[in-house]
Design brief:
By secondary structure, the protein is mainly α. It has helices spanning 5-16, 20-42, 46-63, 73-92, 100-112, 117-136, 139-150, 155-162, 166-189. It is globular.
Length: 190
Amino acid sequence: MEYDPIAESKLIQCILAGETWALEHFYERYADALYAYIYHASSCIKEDAEDIWQETLLAAIRGLGAFHSQSRLFTWLCAIARRKIADYYRKLGSQVAVNTKDQQDDLFKLVDQAPLPEDWIQNKTTKIRVVTTLQMLPDEYRYVLTARYAHEESVAEISRKLGKSYKATESLLSRARYAFKNAFIEADGD
């Protein structure tokens, strides 16, 4: 399933027209990935990530009329999430700019601990890229990759859940990995 801006546009029109199935489809398609994005991008506790997620979904639903398909819908949702995350830290009193002495002290503390800051940043960035890449994949690919690698289910378990043979599930998983790799590399170039 390729990215289809026309299908996204039609989905939005149906939501705006009050069609319940469209809102349910929107939620099924984007809610979990959006939560994962927020959780990894914010580094906050689960309850706060859930609050940010709910605020983001509400803002998105209220603002759907302003979405003009200049980007993917999920990219737009992530932009809203970034603003909500910034609001969260502003409410906590976090400052974007800290003085140099504070930055040095924080750096020295981090160097004494593992992982090193570069590792932490890379790991966080990678997690965010994985979530956004998964969102670009067809539902079936996203399901098998998540089941296999996030939930650590065996190929046999996944094949039973899908009602497919072991070989068919292995083949599906192989195609999903290939599609993920290509999407991940493509996203890196953007």
